[in-house]
Amino acid sequence: MILGAMRAGLVPFPISPRTHLPGIAHLLKSTQTSLVVAGGSQTIDATISQLSDNLAEINFSVQFVELPSLGRVLPELGNTEQESEHKPFPPLKAISGDGIINILHSSGSTGMPRSVKFHLEGVFKNIITQPLGWITLCPESHPCVPTSNLTIEAAAATKCLHMVCVPAFLEMWSQEEAAVAYLRQMKSVVFGGGPLAEAIGNKLVDQGRSLIYFTLDWSNNPESGVHIHSCYGATEFGGINEVSDMDDLSDWSYVKFSSHVDTRFIPQHDEDNSFELVFVVSDDHKPFELNSEIDGKPAYRTKDLVVRHPFKPDLWKFVGRLDDQIILLNGEKTNPGPMDVTYSFSPRETDNHSRRPCTSPSTHTQGYHPSLGCLKLYASDIEEMYLDLEKDSSTTDGIQPPQSWDSTEDIEAWISRGVQNLLGREVNSHSYNALRMLKSTLHASSDSKVQFAATKINQQTIFGKPTVRQLAQLVFQLAKNGDTTVDPVVEALQSIRAMIEKYDAEWPRQEAREIQPVKKERVVVTGTTGGLGSHLLAQLLENDVVEKVWAMNRKSSKGNREREVASFEDKLLDLNLLKSEKLVFVDTDLEDPKLGLSDETYDEIRREATVIIHNAWQVNFNLSLQSFEPSIRGARNLLDLAFHSTAPSGLPRFAFASSISVAGFAGPGRQLSEVSVTPEMAATSIGYGQSKLVTEKLLESARNSGLQTCTVRLGQLTGDARSGAWTTTDWVPSLIGSSVDKELPPVIHTSHPRPVPWVDIMNAFSASLVPRTNSQLPVVRFGEWNKLVIEAAASFKGSEGDRYKRFPSTKIQSTVDGMVLADDELRSREEVEM
């Protein structure tokens, strides 16, 4: 949208929907914006409906345009049967260096947000620096929240040497020995967006025998502290300080301004000798916002106050602001000034000059008190207030402990009550949390184990267990044995039950109606471009009883028809079947309540479909249950489609392609029911199997509500007799692919209704690989094979992509490790023959 607006000669101005409505109206009027393109979510739609009233109050109007879908903008995209009629765009007209090409805005947390206009020259300077150290990353389709734990784990996993973070993360990491140990190995950790408490910064840099090391080589100082650096910048002028190695880590709170920036300092003539920071337009740097003039040149006055280093004149520290704005650890800003105005209306408040002349602290010539002087004068009073606040926050007045520390249900109910009292409303036990009430009551318990548990609760605990239910399980574990480690099986079981409860609700009630017999089947089938899906589609198209097939697949840049042709060719299926008149390709988004379909297509399926076969599913054995929630939501949306059917033959039958992994890892003598699997069995499975189990339970509830359902639990599909096609990303082909490099296939103990010795299978693969390996490969035990592959992959010198091609089994390493453990257990019991 932004690039399209630029191509059209417009100035794009993205506005955050989190901005308050008067602020949005102010931004639109102050920039004389005439066109607003909005949509894409219910939140934005609700904001737009209210925005018109705010605009009317300030006598300003704009034209609203609904955000178009990609299909409406480029209807031929992915259509391989006809050539695109789009013609190349005409060349862009010349734009001067000071021409405005886009606008951003401030947060508006301290009043009305301000628009910040970006000119071409400034943006271009950012573009030309990209090759010096920036890379382009493709984000996951479902991004995770970057908590401090996930951030430090990702940094460690990628062997990161330089990192940029917010001060709040550093504060949390400073409390974790493992995190500090890793930070000390990094060459630099840059923080910005807010201040870092001096005590925290000093604690991080003072991790070795000395604070001062006169060297630039980190490797020579394994016992030095964390190399933290302060970074300074703003939307109005960009980043303007240098970040380089320091000869003294204790200077972490100071910054050095770039020599390419014309930095000026306006003295405040106070006892701290502070200066206001100002940036003047120069040949190398031009602030995006200009609000002053220095020596006849336009400039930007920041209102930030700095003091000079006592011994190093090129280093400066930030000590406050002229406007009393407070910057919090998470980068958010607030201004106590408006609060003071409100307080002044109270009869209990009086002006500071109404009782006696003010001689201390001294005043500025402008007539107001210097902030730094006030803070120093009242430092002891402020400290005492915070101590009182902490004392009050730890009190247990009015907070009763749970009925029992030995019951997760009692602890969950207790936490829920506490959160509800704090918020003044009911909360969902799956979605809210509390910290202060939890710690205070744990401390107040007479049980020594419970008191010890209180010492294990910190802010990071809440990030890791963000819901009431998860927190209750953790507290139960702590109170029981003082260990923060929760049994993974118990935790998985809680997650499975919570996911089932979330989606197993509000099934439509069925009304009695006359049902006509089915003469011809009209089938909806999802996920037809994969291995199983292609065969399903081929058999449906060959079946004379079926008169129509909707092939539903997620939208692809290649086009689903082209993907289907490629899949049919790979599996030697009849390509002429794809020319059948009964076949309808449908691009879909299963996460959307209406599946991403047009009203016409959705209603057509409701009127005509007699069978729904749900085969599409994300396949990734490394992901947790929560990562499969979009797939579970898609299954529920398809079930809702079935329940809302108006077909004369009644509700369509619903078939679901599940997996034997719903039952977890097998064991000797264990049997699997062909009727229903319990969540307890799935708790030992991987996230993929758990997600399939959740969906099975939804089908069971749907069946109880009147829908005919069928669940098919599939195992490893090895292709067909005609083509022998086997998806290369499946786990068995991955094992074989990794075996080629090490020339050692593994032996695994398996069970099957018609067992074939695994050695025979591996020997068959080994024989087929002779043309590549020039000899029959020896077969080794699974655990030994796994160890060799891990070591070889770790020592591989190529790129990550090449490493995965050479050792594909490492993509599912955690799954392979679990199989090794299961194989070892079976071997130890000697109940399954090779």
Oligomeric grouping of the chains: single chain
* Number of domain modules: 5
Rg of Cα set: 33 Å
Reading off the top of the CATH hierarchy, the class of the largest domain is best stated as Alpha Beta
The percent range for helix content is 25-40%
CATH architecture of the largest domain: 3-Layer(aba) Sandwich
Give the CATH topology of the largest domain: Rossmann fold
Total number of strands: 26
Q: β content, as a range?
A: 5-15%
The CATH superfamily of the largest domain appears as NAD(P)-binding Rossmann-like Domain
Unreliable residue stretches = 209-222, 353-359, 362-369, 431-447
State mean pLDDT (0 to 100 scale): 77
Alpha-beta content class: alpha/beta
Give the termini separation: 60 Å
Q: How many helices does DSSP assign?
A: 30
- Main β-sheet, in a few words? 7 strands, antiparallel
Overall shape: it is globular
Overall description:
The protein is α/β, with parallel strands linked by helices. The protein folds into five domains: about 1-125, Rossmann fold, CATH 3.40.50.980; about 150-335, Rossmann fold, CATH 3.40.50.12780; about 390-485, no CATH class; about 520-715, NAD(P)-binding Rossmann-like Domain (Rossmann fold); about 730-830, no CATH class. It is built from 30 helices and 26 strands. The strands form eight sheets. Strands 10, 11, 12, 13, 14, 15 and 16 form a seven-stranded antiparallel sheet that branches. It has a six-stranded parallel sheet with strand order 21-20-19-22-23-24, with helices on both faces. A hairpin with a 2-residue loop joins strand 14 (about 290-295) and strand 15 (about 295-310). The longest helix has 18 residues, at about 685-705. It starts with a helix and ends in a 5-residue tail after the last helix.
